[in-house]
Amino acid sequence: MNRFKLNTLMAAAFSLLVLWAVTGFVLLSRDMIDASTAPKAEAVVKVLIRTGTESAALRQIAQPFEQETGIKVQFIEVGRDSYFTAVGTQLFAGSNTFDVVLMPSTSIAQFASSKAILPLDRYIAMSGSASGEPVDIDDFLSVYRYNGSIYALPTDISTHFLYYRSDLIPKPPETWDELYEIAKTFTAGIHRNSPTRWGLVMPAVVPEEREKIFDSILWSFGGNIIGDDGQVLFDSKESIQSGEYLEKLMRESVVPGDLMSWDFARTRDALINGDVAMAAPYWNSAYPMIAQSSSPHKDHIRIALIPGVRDETGQVRRIPFQHGWTLSINASSTNQLGAWKFVEFATGKQGGMIYARNGGIPARRSILSAPEFRESRPDFALILKSLTIARSEPSLIYYPAMAEVQENALAKILTLFASPSDAFQDAAAELRNLSAHISVKVPERMGNNP
């Protein structure tokens, strides 16, 4: 194991813990405010958002919210490249420049543990003030908890699909082995007469792609990073087998050799341009973009559940990845009641319908199954089906360090620098050292079903 690298990770993790502890002490009283005695909501609520599909859809909620509540919405938009740095810096510093923050579900544990965001349970108990009806927690596909309290409600939810060219592949592959065989057939480097250059692609850049994309393969093989009991499982037999599958794709040149430079946009464009026969695992959010494109192939690009592994009974085990973009309340906000009213409206059924009509994917069963979207958003039905079997990442206060360890191990496999066994064993050792030196509870799964 690289001791210098481990020490660096440990130093970073301990620095974060010290910062969280100090910040948590300063903000302790803020998360204990009783919603029933909170000050009156101010006339403006400030919402920090990241440039992208989610923020564009959220902007459409502002006017109906203002009309219903009399509270104006001011959006503070930050670019994708600097968003996570901006959010972390301002929340940990106790900045009150925004009231509501858009964040991925993987960040909840870090900010909740430092008391930089507020638990929402008291507000949920008094819900109905903005939308005229209770929050209806049971309608959410996921809510996001830390130590038993809800700290965020989802505006948008994501999972992984298999995309395939139905004019080339009449029936989508059921298993990863079947996917591999079909991908070889449509890879020009293997079959000169292939109509596509590549049989299979998937995003593999960092951050946000490599370990999340791989998780759908890892879990389908029966592997895991960290179990529900907190045990590190990244070097288990099943985990290593999933790494060996990834290695086979690279070694046999079934996927591009520069896969680590493939991101969401490049994968989408390769489907649109007809360069690839399949993309998997790949984000569900690409489907409406492809359907609305001018590609001559768009009517042949279909979606299906991700493949899996067939067990001894003949059943296929598929476990897609899922995560959400959520809204949380800044613990340093001076307008916490106004912030809650916006969170309640934006994640509620009325706001969710507006969000869906503007290209978003709300995390509510009632909206994804609404008759209104059956023709315009056929992907909604598959999203619902996928999310019934999907899994989310563990909720850890050292999640960034865990993700970096996993990403580095996958990079070694994707570059054929190390065997899956060596890469995952080294990574597991790093993870055990991290968890042993940081006092953490058994990880909660992000996105627990209500």
UniProtKB/TrEMBL annotation:
Signal peptide: none
SUPFAM superfamilies: Periplasmic binding protein-like II (SSF53850)
Superkingdom to which the source organism belongs: Bacteria
Pfam families assigned: SBP_bac_8 (PF13416)
Name of the featured protein: Extracellular solute-binding protein
Lineage: Bacteria, Bacillati, Bacillota, Bacilli, Bacillales
